[in-house]
Amino acid sequence: MKLSKEIYIVIIILLLQIFVIQAFSNEEDHGSWWVNNFGALTVNDHPLIPNAQNVFDRVLAAADKRYNTTPNLVILRELSSPWALCLKDGTIILTQKALEFCYQDVDKQTGDSYIAFIIGHELSHLANDNFWHVEAFKALKKYGNELKSKDIINILKETEDIEDSNHARNIIKKKELKADANGLIYLSMAGFDASAIINTKPKNFLKEWTLNTQSNTYLNDRTHMSNEQRIEFLRTNLKSVRENIVFFDIGVRLYQLGRYLDAIDFINAFKEKYPGREVYNTLGLIHYKLAINFLAKCDKERAFQFKLSTLLDTKTLAKPINKRSKNTSDCYEMTIFKEHIQYAIHYFKSACEKDPYYLPSRINHSSALIIAKDYSGAMSSIDKALNIHPKNKNCLNNRAVAMYLLGLQIKVDMFKQSYDILINLTKEYKNYSDAYYNLARILTERNRFAASHDKWNNFLGLEHFGIYANIARKSLGMKEIVVKKKDASKTNLFGKSPVNLGLLNKKTKKQLASLKKISFELGNVSGAFYLGNQIKVLVLENTIELVDNVIKNKISLQKAKEYFGSPLEVINTYSDTNEKSLIYNNMVFDIKNDLIERVVYFVNDNYNESAF
What we know:
Elements (H helix, E strand, L loop, with lengths): L4 H19 L7 H8 L10 H14 L9 E5 L7 E3 L4 E5 H8 L4 H20 L4 H12 L8 H5 L8 H25 L5 H4 L6 H7 L5 H7 L3 H17 L1 H12 L3 H14 L3 H22 L1 H4 L28 H23 L4 H13 L3 H14 L4 H18 L4 H14 L4 H13 L3 H14 L4 H9 L26 E2 L2 H7 L3 E7 L2 E7 L3 E6 L2 E14 H8 L4 E4 L7 E4 L3 E6 L2 E8 L10
Parallel strand pairs: 1-3
Antiparallel strand pairs: 2-3, 4-8, 5-6, 6-7, 7-8, 8-12, 9-10, 10-11, 11-12
């Protein structure tokens, strides 16, 4: 018998009603039940609430995003136990006692780290659908004192679909350890101090947390490892992450040297251990540089039309535009450019999501959007950064460029607004070459040649070499300068590399013998790191390719430039201490407060200057 359309609709409605009733039948799975029964604190009720909410927002941004709902934080007033749990509707619950305990007898920074760990722990449970704390609460509520004579695992195991109680207990303990590990990583990625959790001073956090939640012994004794085991596990896990930082460091170095594909392998290896904001930012920069390189092969004028600001985080970027070359849309490299620029946008956006206050990813995201011709999106992204850093020169530089190009796109003249921003930058930051370049560019495109010549000359006074300098010279009718790549490693200002570069031999093996060796295999890349207190050595395919060494006697940036000449490239890094890296043909200098702190010796005869 064929059912009518109306009957089908009735059946569907009935099934939906049954689903809704079942979904909401467990009232303890929803934050409203807990608030109704135990009360909730608001910002006006307790001075620590703003702290807790700020910590929650930061940890949530950094944490695993595999949630079926949007997590939110509720602080309960009257509940004595448990102190922390997560609910199926996405609510993370803390109690007033838990909040006050975390800040008791410690400074704010340490208290924030304690709260961040607890929140991270619960967010990990939420991401992995682990809700046995609520099941235990239901059992305690149902059985009362009788629970003391029962094995709580017999109740909790029902959610695991496992018959053996010991096996169920072990599975739950493993998941608790995983939540501990994730909680520690989340708090670290959010910018809090992970060592506060594993140190015993100013207080042994995990031990005192357990002692103050004795009514939770049905959980702590049966579903958690001992405090000593938890601390040792966290210490071991954190040590593993820190040992893997070398993958990030070497990945950053390879990025600086223009070896982008190798850099991706190393950064991705570190991302498996620590998917932090700076990791995604670096991946975005790698794809951004690859995109620029491919774009330049098809449309060099578009690639270098403006000097966009990018920032690298090294701590765990002459003719009018309407005369471009023809048929660039048919260029094969243009297709590759589009792929890499979309990857760059994706990674920068991910870094922004992990920390909305992280400046490099905002700046870099806007640059990628500008190159992708999404000028409106670029302005939106940079405006979010300006809300936090209203006078940042890199933010303002990118905003001026995005505004100018958006005006051309929508046929609204935004020259004056862009010009005002850039001219003010040159007044406030007299050595900021990017602003002079972009001023000269927009003045040239307006056919204001007298004014543009002045700005091109200002730019050349600050930046003598490189592709942008040659564009400036061409605009001024000057001859381009081809810089002979100087092998800085042949000079004696710093001496030779402490470990000889090139193929491994008896001598270099002896030089490496005292260093710690870490072997690795990453897809098509295999080799080893050799690590000491002041040195890192990278060996790839039996060849010493990079030696990263601390300088004992610091040398000024000015003296280095006088001795070695102008670098092929200057890479600005994210720092409050004026940090940057100067790239020469066979050396990199790390600068901090105008002093050379590290020197990197490397084999790279094919350094690509066109990649900036």
